[in-house]
Amino acid sequence: MKFLVAMQRGNADVARDIDAAVKITAKYLPSVASADPAVMRKTVEIRSASLSPDGRFDYAAYERALPLYAELGLVKADPKAIKLREVLSHELPDLV
Region 22-50: what's the mean pLDDT? Predict the structure, then answer.
């Protein structure tokens, strides 16, 4: 869950401060953190595409990606049991 929350924080911050967003997201992604800073920034930019046109977080897009994250070992929980909107609403009420 911390990984997903970090992703949301990174997405929320990307428009304001790309470097801060990279640091937040990279905290939970060591492989990205060890990459070139330009690669890290591009990674966060790509993830920020999960924001809908009105700037809200696209939960469905992340929930569709959860099985892949689980396969890569980034998410340990059963993807079918995760309700991202509920998790983020509970942990990040000011951003959801």
Answer: 59
